[in-house]
């Protein structure tokens, strides 16, 4: 099928490709204006065709705080008391004592190129760093949002920008703490920030803007009620029920558990993405599935922070939707997130292949569900199909992990059996941004990142 009269900028040929209709062999994709304009199967490779390997659709990363990339490996020592999520959060707040727009942009750009190298072609950036290190508003309240957009532009990743509303330290409208001074805004200022985000992403191809109430801890019920209207057609993301202390505090405040409270009091539907939702009862996860909302699972961060395990297998087999996010960015990659998601379920259930279904292997089911849930939660459809953006992740199947593999075994071998670096190239909006496993601008972005870290770490 070919869309005419789109001019074709280039043609890419792959030994196999995962399309919405399943695996296709000997596939030629024609790319024009950043989109897929033609798709032929059973095609012989032509002399002008670029590509090679196996083509997968790029996946959306549904949850990132890009600046936290720079803390990876700096929070693994034990403190005087027991370490947990809350002590980690104190370290994260202290990390924000320094770091202005230049440093945040540099760190964000590094995280974004690593996402592309790991198979993510879009990022939903859950952005709450609105104020300067002293807690004062920048002259332009969208200063840092603009830096995130600039980093996305430099990396070439598609951006779903989620400005975050944050006002309180805990349930019941507690005043924010000193550590939270960079996050705070009032509702009028926030509405202005959201429109500025729309304006400043106007030049980015395929950008989406949504809104993110940070959590039920940081947003009062009255404030939460005002926020969906600001999202327009964009997605609405919220952190919920990540830690057992949050569940206890929510019950003490309202008598209800966090997800239970949210499903009762907020218009949760397909526009919503519930980040983590780790601690849920069966009634709660069934409620999320019934509303058609996406759960944003961040398996590596949830393991790193000691959050707990979401009942993903039960939820998924009941029709629940999920996407994956890299959250704290301690390690970045589609295969790594999906592998840990499956392994956490196997360890908890003492079973194997728990996320597979009757038609698809574990890797295929994980990948396609994360693709669909990611597209929904990030507000942008994907897939290797005519009319879609040319966002293509190419596995280098010359690697030994792929010897003798075809069909679903390619995904299973990538997720469970391949060393890092199996992603050979990545095309985003028809442009090759990763080549031979390395982002084309990595050297310059690394130099800028090293200078930024010298400032931030002093
Ligand atoms: C965040 N991260 O917003 O970066 C949070 C920590 C909070 C995770 N929840 C802050 N993983 O939840 O209060
Ligand atoms: Zn988060």
Question: What keywords describe this structure?
Answer:
alpha/beta; Urease, subunit C, domain 1; TIM Barrel; 2 domains; five-stranded parallel sheet; binds N-carbamimidoyl-L-glutamic acid; single chain; globular; 458 residues; binds zinc ion
Structural class: alpha/beta
The residue-averaged pLDDT reads: 96
Radius of gyration, taken over Cα atoms and rounded to an integer in Å: 21 Å
How many separate helices? 14
How widely separated are the two ends? Answer: 57 Å
Query: What is the count of structural domains?
Result: 2
State the name of the first-level CATH class of the largest domain. Answer: Alpha Beta
Level-2 CATH architecture of the largest domain: Alpha-Beta Barrel
The share of residues in extended strands comes to 15-25%
The strand count comes to 18
Proportion in helices: 25-40%
Biggest sheet features = 9 strands, mixed
Uncertain segments: none
Q: So what's the overall shape?
A: globular
- Ligand inventory: N-carbamimidoyl-L-glutamic acid, zinc ion
CATH topology term of the largest domain: TIM Barrel
CATH H-level homologous superfamily name of the largest domain: Metal-dependent hydrolases
